[in-house]
Give the backbone structure.
Amino acid sequence: MNIIIPAAVAITVLVSIPMMLQWERPPMDSKQQGYRGTGMVQIDNPRIKAKQAASIEIPEAYDPAEVEGTKASEVYENLKVLGDLDQAEFDRLMFAITDWVSPDEGCGYCHNEENLAEDSKYTKIVARRMLQMTKAINTNWSNHVAETGVTCYTCHRGKPVPQNVWALDPGSRQAGGMAASRAGQNLGAPAVGLTSLPYDPFAGNLDKKGLIRVTAPTALPNGHTPHIKDTEKTYALMMHLSTALGVNCTFCHNSRHFANWEQSSPARVTAYHGLAMVRDVNKTYMEPLVDVFPPERKGPQGDVLKVNCATCHEGQSKPLGGIQMLKDYLTELSAAKAD
Ligand code: HEC
Ligand code: HEC
Ligand code: HEC
Ligand code: HEC
């Protein structure tokens, strides 16, 4: 009998130690994000932030090109996107994209090195479209990417396939028997912060415009009112937004009224444009490439790998901590000829 109390204490201590190891120790940084008293505060662990910042290694920009007035199209045979650049700028860009996308594989990742004009590798066809896509992001979506802009490195980080991409989820992790239909949820998916919300928050939201709504504006359903499924999917998507940017909900919302734009922070407007930009990127640029990619580069349903918020952000509220790589490649990767 009198062994029970000491045993219970011992067990409690043993169980608490591993739990306490998970805690983050103070001090934390906190930054007010909205009105006074609304609890809209971003809390960051400065030690984690410092590690994140230190882990970013950006390839050094090449010296500015010495423009000589010869257009690349006058020298090279098969240019469909970059012909208007000066030859020196063109060559500099080829070296830069090699650093950004295929530093280990080199020029040969996209080219037959015997004949650089040939389009025999699918990677070159993809890269040509990616050049147009990058220009379009920097030119048409400045309401999201601002002056910071993007280069190939923002998504690729020195790898042919970006680390964070998504594809349609086939639901292959279905249980058998009575639990056979999970209705797209209850699997604790990493995409939604290991909650049991719908495990695919992307399809229907990041490839087309979904109903990102929770609150019905009218008392009775009228065909445009969100259902419980829309509500769950909205929360699932919001989990992705938060984890992709490494922020909490109050970075964008006043939690006493999530839907109200007047009480939200300016970041929510930027995020709204971001959602539209991601849809455009996936619809206009990624999906039409589906027949160009080989099977091993596609998702389990045979669709192309697509972009979400984490593709660029990788856990930071500004990709690469806000470092402006585009400014060294403005002529090559912005304004001119985006289509
Ligand atoms: C990530 C893919 C990729 C890599 C890596 C790459 N290139 Fe290219 N390269 C392209 C694309 C795409 C074009 C066509 C651009 C266009 O259509 O305007 C091209 C075109 C060229 C051309 C013009 C050929 C012609 O006559 O039409 C040359 C020269 C060239 N690249 C050199 C290089 C060199 C040198 C390297 C390595 C330092 C390199 N490229 C690395 C994608 C790549
Ligand atoms: C918004 C994010 C984003 C940007 C910016 C971006 N890419 Fe990509 N890229 C992707 C995604 C997503 C894929 C698909 C990966 C797959 O299915 O293999 C991809 C695939 C590729 C591939 C095929 C790689 C392979 O092995 O299959 C090449 C080559 C490529 N990109 C080149 C570029 C170049 C060059 C640039 C800059 C001009 C660029 N990308 C900019 C997201 C991006
Ligand atoms: C990076 C900014 C951002 C973060 C972080 C964020 N949201 Fe959102 N949220 C938005 C945007 C933008 C919309 C509106 C989307 C639209 O209308 O297309 C939205 C919409 C919503 C809605 C729907 C409101 C309505 O009109 O019915 C709810 C509820 C919501 N968010 C909750 C959350 C929760 C909970 C979190 C934290 C887990 C969160 N959000 C994190 C930007 C954000
Ligand atoms: C193509 C790359 C790319 C993608 C994809 C992307 N963003 Fe961004 N985002 C950026 C860049 C670049 C900035 C920095 C702009 C600046 O300097 O003001 C940014 C800034 C932001 C900011 C403002 C942060 C701040 O500190 O003010 C928010 C919020 C944001 N993005 C949300 C999102 C959301 C939500 C998604 C997914 C729906 C998304 N982004 C997808 C490139 C991207």
Q: What stands out?
A: Residues 85 and 305 are 30 Å apart (CA to CA). The radius of gyration is 24 Å. Residues 76-83, 94-95, 97-98, 101-102, 107, 109-111, 116-117, 123-124, 127-128 surround heme C (ligand 1) (CB under 6 Å).
